[in-house]
Amino acid sequence: xxxxxxxxxxxxxxxxxxxxxxxxxxxxxxxxxxxxxxxxxxxxxxxxxxxxxxxxxxxxxxxxxxxxxxxxxxxxxxxxxxxxxxxxxxxxxxxxxxxxxxxxxxxxxxxxxxxxxxxxxxxxxxxxxxxxxxxxxxxxxxxxxxxxxxxxxxxxxxxxxxxxxxxxxxxxxxxxxxxxxxxxxxxxxxxxxxxxxxxxxxxxxxxxxxxxxxxxxxxxxxxxxxxxxxxxxxxxxxxxxxxxxxxxxxxxxxxxxxxxxxxxxxxxxxxxxxxxxxxxxxxxxxxxxxxxxxxxxxxxxxxxxxxxxxxxxxxxxxxxxxxxxxxxxxxxxxxxxxxxxxxxxxxxxxxxxxxxxxxxxxxxxxxxxxxxxxxxxxxxxxxxxxxxxxxxxxxxxxxxxxxxxxxxxxxxxxxxxxxxxxxxxxxxxxxxxxxxxxxxxxxxxxxxxxxxxxxxxxxxxxxxxxxxxxxxxxxxxxxxxxxxx
Length: 485
Prior knowledge:
Strand order of the largest sheet: 13-17-16-15-14
Number of strands: 37
Number of helices: 4
Largest sheet: 5 strands, antiparallel
């Protein structure tokens, strides 16, 4: 078999601009025999070469024919069977046809980009974060085939970087400008939309909401307030909400800022009185806020009041009260399981509940402490002397503050006491995601690999749908980004 024949077969799998590069990388005679043992890809191509024989480059590809709906689709291999984002793989099998628009490839539930198809092979690229081990599935015109006995191992690459603010520099007033030259007074709460705009609450004397444009690498002030505090987006990422924290701000509850106006336009939501003339939220310090597609949910500092506010009509409804959360709690709505996750600072626990739960005898939701499921943390919290990873309530966490959720429903939590970020997966395993490993507390400031990064009392966290996580690293006075691929 000649090297030119190898190049022709490789070209059948690749795109025109990449084919000869791939051929040179994979299919030189020495590389071919080295990789034949290690890679299913080489085996696939070798079988293709054997079938083609030493045919000249002018002959047609014998595997260039349409999918046959009367026959089953089969998947027999993948090569390479490990890699990261964008790894080019060849999936071998039978009856794939030659129309890539009819072919779907899934790594677990993540769709891969299909580059080229011939009847015995699919050339594709690994999607982002499909899971540590992925089952490979091919779907053609509704017919499914799964690769049995082999899974693709995904290698995650992550790095922590500073995206805004000056380390260890707090100014009054804060300054706008290029993101890494601008300053905060005290960045505490953070949220991000679906196109990379990061909104940060600059607390207390900062008294403003800051917009970090990751595209332009600039930070600007978009709203001044009395004492801005917790914030969030609705799941559509069309509207940002930020609460007024102190009771002295009442009847103001929170502001909404519209993405369509680049967060320049704001709208005020205020408390309302019930039929007896009593203020529904009342003169309480506010702490936790979360939003689903229809409502904004707001809880007072120690759980005395829990209300929901309709995003269109602005109607305020009391849906819970006297919920013993402790002094501070923080919330996030998880669009995967439709529940609100609540972190309890002092006890180091995470609870979750259905905000629309309507018990018998009620016409609207009513939430009590009994409706909250304690899922994470042993309950030692502020009095713990060391942290520990583990499942559910076996894990020991410290002083828990803001939470974030990614597109898969994983929860991320800031721990001020242990200066780290925790991750809770769908099996409720709690592990240190970024910062010093579980154990005694260690603070500092360091970018780099998540396991080597250092934080100083991080207070809030938010996740994008494309694998970026932003952290308000409060007492380093910066906003950090954890990029995951």
